[in-house]
């Protein structure tokens, strides 16, 4: 907001008789600065913007409009003047703490500008201390608690819908306030299976069976498969003989497990590989969103874009790639190149490659591998990089099917 735009200006005429504005005096400038300081440092509340009571949604809209008009909404820099994290870095840390699955669902709901600011922050994060993780998670819970006080669940829903969209807001509310939704353990539905297992591992079989009985059968079966034989036997017997649980007991267990899950997030927060976490987040997003993010990331930071592309396509992706496409690419390579490609690789990768060439070529590749030993690491890495680039490009263009990374069902 420029005060000069809202006041009459003094004019005089020059030698040619043309009106020109009179220069400001130092006292006028000082007065203007004082006015700006007074206006812009005032605590702004929704009630200050209107004389009559409005809904939380209207109040929020009015506040945002007022701030935009005043020019007070600025793009945060990496750190604020007092040395604290920017808004974007704070959000980046929160996304890392809630896990790749949850973050992958949130990012598509953000604007392109927001994503452009947040993604580099995620990639640059190396550690989040337990203390800071606890503060960040508390801030999020505080947002919901404050919303309850000022307008209840509906106010919280409005605030979250503005940030994440209706569908994601519903998911966050169910996860953050499980007892409000009357359905226990909903915050575990989208959690990683191994994380759920670690959460209930030290609980007694009664609690384990109670939690598992409220999850989808398919998910519960995968968690049980992570248990030791003795644990499996005990929990399966408890499930088979399980009787109805009183609502009060169920409520207390649900609340205790929810608090434990939040603490579990804090415990694992000490060391974080931001770039690897970002790669895992992108992998769980749909291919179109993944490609869009990689595109403008590469334009802004080519090194970061290339590093993420290499992390996004791994040995495991090759193993899960469509055999016919792999065969096609291997036909373009010599036996020597294939020998370099499989040298020093895990058994499942070697088997994937060798099983997609003829028996005659397979024998020749193995012979060349013996002849070429010891091989230079740089040669092996060059051949591998070229092969991966072809498959990765085909996947990004939609020509390659990779199990667990293509959402469509093929018959």
TrEMBL record:
InterPro entries: Flg_Motor_Flig, Flg_Motor_Flig_C, FliG_a-hlx, FliG_M, FliG_N. Its main location: other. Residues 195-263 form the Flagellar motor switch protein FliG middle domain. The keyword Membrane applies. Residues 296-402 form the Flagellar motor switch protein FliG C-terminal domain. It is a peripheral membrane protein. One of its GO terms (molecular function) is cytoskeletal motor activity. The keyword Membrane applies. It is found in: Bacterial flagellum basal body; Cell membrane. Residues 89-180 form the Flagellar motor switch protein FliG N-terminal domain. Belongs to the FliG family. This is Flagellar motor switch protein FliG. It comes from Treponema bryantii. The lineage of its organism: Bacteria, Pseudomonadati, Spirochaetota, Spirochaetia, Spirochaetales.
């Amino acid at each position: 907001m420029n005060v000069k735009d809202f006041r009459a200006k003094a004019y005089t005429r020059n030698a040619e008789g043309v009106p020109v504005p009179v220069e400001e005096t130092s006292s006028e400038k000082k007065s203007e600065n004082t006015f700006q300081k007074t206006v812009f440092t005032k605590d702004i509340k929704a009630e200050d913007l209107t004389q009559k009571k409005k809904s939380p949604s209207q109040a929020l809209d009015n506040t945002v409009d007022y701030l935009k008009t005043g020019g007070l909404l600025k793009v945060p820099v990496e750190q604020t003047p007092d040395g604290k994290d920017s808004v974007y870095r704070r959000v980046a840390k929160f996304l890392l703490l809630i896990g790749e699955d949850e973050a992958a669902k949130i990012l598509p709901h953000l604007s392109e500008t927001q994503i452009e600011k947040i993604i580099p922050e995620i990639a640059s994060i190396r550690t989040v201390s337990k203390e800071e993780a606890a503060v960040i998670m508390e801030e999020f819970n505080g947002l919901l608690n404050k919303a309850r006080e000022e307008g209840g669940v509906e106010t919280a829903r409005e605030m979250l819908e503005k940030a994440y969209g209706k569908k994601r807001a519903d998911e966050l509310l169910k996860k953050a306030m499980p007892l409000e939704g009357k359905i226990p353990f909903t915050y575990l539905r989208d959690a990683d299976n191994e994380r759920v297992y670690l959460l209930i591992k030290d609980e007694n079989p009664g609690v384990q069976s109670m939690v598992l009985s409220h999850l989808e059968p398919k998910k519960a079966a995968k968690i049980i498969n992570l248990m030791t034989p003795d644990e499996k036997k005990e929990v399966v017997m408890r499930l088979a003989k399980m009787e109805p649980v009183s609502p009060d007991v169920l409520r207390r267990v649900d609340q205790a497990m929810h608090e434990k899950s939040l603490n579990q997030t804090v415990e694992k927060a000490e060391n974080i590989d931001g770039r690897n976490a970002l790669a895992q987040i992108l992998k769980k997003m749909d291919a179109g969103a993944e490609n869009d993010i990689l595109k403008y990331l590469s334009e802004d930071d080519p090194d970061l874009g290339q590093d993420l592309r290499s992390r996004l396509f791994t040995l495991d992706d090759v193993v899960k790639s469509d055999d016919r496409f792999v065969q096609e690419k291997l036909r373009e390579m010599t036996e020597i190149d294939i020998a370099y490609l499989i040298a020093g690789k895990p058994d499942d990768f070697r088997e994937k490659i060798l099983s997609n060439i003829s028996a005659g070529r397979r024998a020749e590749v193995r012979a060349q591998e013996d002849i070429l030993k010891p091989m230079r690491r740089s040669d092996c890495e060059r051949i591998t990089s070229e092969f991966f680039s072809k498959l990765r490009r085909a996947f990004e263009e939609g020509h390659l099917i990779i199990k667990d990374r293509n959402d469509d069902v093929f018959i």
